[in-house]
Amino acid sequence: MNLLQSLRRSGQSIWLDGFERSWVSSGQLQQAIEEDGLKGTRSNFDALNLAIQGHEYDRDFNTLAQQGMSRSARSDYEYLLVRDLQLAADRLKQVHAHTQGRDGYVQVDLPPDTLFEAETAIAAAQKIWRSVGWSNLLLRIPATRLMLPVIEQLLREGMNVNATLVFSLKVYNQVFDSYLRGLEKQIQLGKSVSNGVCFVSFAIDRWDAAINPFIADSETSFGMMQSRLLYEHYQSERQRSLPKGAKPLRLVWDCTDIPPKFAWHYIQALRVPETVMLLSPSTLEMYRKVSLLPTRLIDGESDEQIITSETEILSDEQIDQLVNEEMARSLNAYQQLLDTIEHKRASMVNCP
Fold first, then answer.
1. CA–CA distance from 208 to each of 58, 214, 225, 253, 275 (Å)?
2. Which helix (H) or strand (E) holds 179?
3. How far does CA 114 lie from the centroid of its chain?
């Protein structure tokens, strides 16, 4: 039994960040589902960008050109993305059914330039939801002041949402309230509340980027401590009344930007049941080879004292800075992807 299988047995779900077409077509995704217990995945701009720079999507670009469907880099991106999401959602449908909708999701980010106006974001979400057409699609929406009403609206419409860029307990509670209101609206409309689901993602490395990562003489980082505090709050708040049949809101530990060789401490600290751990393909591959599950969590006396008495809380200004940095990073990655697609389109047209 490897570490990933052990995490599964402890009640934690492992999701993969950054799949692309070859991961599905080669059978790697199916293998990870069957052998490692992988329960979800995510399409991201960087992984797709690298894959398009190769030849994995050349047939798609040829098809678009021959059928006269290629109109712009953005429309080509949407075509490729929808196909990828449909293929991955199909592979994960059995996981989704077996877990009764708790897992088995394929995540996708909305185009970052649609996230500055509520109406634009809602339209983009509705478009991709209809285009993909699978109930195990999960829309990643940043929990910014502008997007919190969008999260509520999408949940009202029965879509699945993963609220991202959550860096405080205050915002976590705002997302929880949005989820409750979305469920209540569905009840008012006579709809089932068992269809939609809400997750909340915490980017551990972003917390660590804001504060000196590791406490002196400790293997505990600021991000780990904040995650533990949020989990304790989640545990105490989980008794809040949800409508009958509604799925509980779940926490996602986003460890994708943590280098694999440093991921061990995070994995052992965040190994808690009923949560999701989002890992990069390189981290997933590294821990396929590890057979021993660490037994030490954040339970040492010194660490508990740090957690309860010395943990800094990010100021509103620090949180705003983190959110702005992440939004800018996403915009840059998306634009680089569009530039790669434009270059590929031009090279395919010029091929004899």
1. 39, 8, 10, 13, 20
2. helix 169-188
3. 18
CA-nearest of 76, 165, 155, 81 to 122 is 155
Q: Which amino acid belongs to residue 93?
A: K
- Beta pairing, strands 250-254 & 276-279: parallel
What's the token pair of residue 35? 């052998």
Residue whose structure tokens are 């699978």? 134
Least confident of 149-163, 203-217, 218-232, 260-274: 203-217
**82: burial class by Cβ within 10 Å (0-12, 13-18, 19+)?**
middle
pLDDT in tens, 46-67: 999 999 999 999 999 988 888 7
pLDDT digits (tens, 9 = 90+) for 155-212: 999 999 999 999 988 999 999 999 999 999 999 989 888 888 999 999 988 887 777 6
Tokens representing 253 are 């530990």
Say if CB 147 and CB 129 are below 8 A apart.
Answer: no
User: What DSSP element (H or E) covers 343?
Assistant: helix 316-350
Cα distance from N-terminal residue to C-terminal residue, the chain: 52
